[in-house]
Amino acid sequence: MANSIVVTGMGMVTPLGASPESTWKALMAGESAIRPLKGREWEAFDAPRAAQVLEGWTSQSLLRRDRSLQLGVLSAEKAWKTADLFRVAPGRIATTFSSSKGGLLSLLQLENDGVVDWDFLADFFPHAGGQLLAHRFGFSGTALSVASACSTGVGSLAMGARLLLDGECEAVLTGSTEASIHPLIYAGFNNMGLFSQRDRGPAPFDLERDGFLMGEGAATLILELEASARHRRAPIAARLAGWALGADAYKPLEMEPNGKSIVPVIQRALHMAGLKPGDIGYINAHGTGTRSNDRVESSALEEIFGNSRTWVSSTKGATGHLLGAAGSVEAVLAAMVLEKGEIPDTRNLERPDPDCDLRHVEKGGVREKVAHVLSLSYGFGGQLGAVIFSKA
Prior knowledge:
By secondary structure, the chain is α/β, with parallel strands linked by helices.
């Protein structure tokens, strides 16, 4: 199809691994990235925990840059090399890579020590990641930034796809990054009562779920029109079949309790993809592990998918909630299901909540080849996003 969009490169860095392959291996092995937070700055909290990326994975050449930018570059380098974008004119490569909070750690460090780095503003804004990647790889096409809380990654992907369909570019580097594990942000979520207190960590959709834990990471996808990608014989990992964005205007920090705002977003993505609910083999749910989110999301999925045999899991119990990077990371994980022929479980799910009546992927995952997958992301403030990938 002339206007079919394909994925020709994927890169990812998460607390589980510094690449898509290492993250997938750890995820399917049942590993969890949740660890205690150590240091004097954390002494005011009772047993603080989060999922952090190992320091040794970041580039020495970027040590002065904000941590979100370090993670963004690490994820993009893998995707860039796989897609072999060196053969695409620099002016025809666009970027829609962003962060939900920008260079937050640089800002807060500045507040602590009062020292202004020469590159502080270059790191501070949410568009800084895309700006750095364009400079690093030398492309000069359209550069746009989406900042929509925890759905930033899906919003970035949707905007990048639209640029392709509008003829603004031949390829787009899209994704998101997040590094905001800091006592100030931690205290905000903690005061809202959103953090899990369970010893084993978050348990999305479990009867005894009690919240999430923060994480950090980044993911990058290279999108191209299929005709162009095949012309230059680029590797094709998956087809971007459909996407949709929406908003929940119920309350600033609460979603419509029956999932009525989520339903039309998923339906529009299915319509764009030309698929029926039963065609979707796997759903990577937003699945934060909070009592409200999981119930609301389950209501929406039950209304659309009913008694279909669609597998559902949340990977946040293993990776932590990656906030602004969650949408991109989970989109890559969903796309990898198409290639791997196996589906990751929902970590720590032992007793599914009857109010979350879905076909859960429980301990150990399942081996099953599927043709179409759906990934969902929602953000504080009501931002909603859905993306569908199909087997290439």
